[in-house]
Amino acid sequence: MSAALLPKRQLRGLLASRLRKHIVVAFLFSMGCAAGYKSGVAEPRKREYAEFYKNYGAMKEFEAMRKAEHQCFGIVQNLAALIFDIFTPLFLVLPSWSPAQP
After folding, report:
1. pLDDT score for 33
2. What is the pTM of this model?
3. DSSP single-letter state for residue 55
4. Do residue 48 and residue 75 come from a single domain?
């Protein structure tokens, strides 16, 4: 009696049928995630960048940093002066290089 109530087992192709179903579900899930990321993250980010660069002036920003004597410009000038002071005496005492005479 109980044998008649139980469904017949699938003995062949079980892996293939389950994989087919899971591949379709995984594909639909990944497309949903991609669409959600595009609409929720990428598009708002693109709009914010466009709005920012609409009124952005790179030269104006550079001049404002230079006038404020920003740390990075001062460090570069001090480093260049330090290197010049260190290496200038070395070049004065080294003999000048010339190609070998035949």
Report:
1. 98
2. 0.52
3. S
4. no
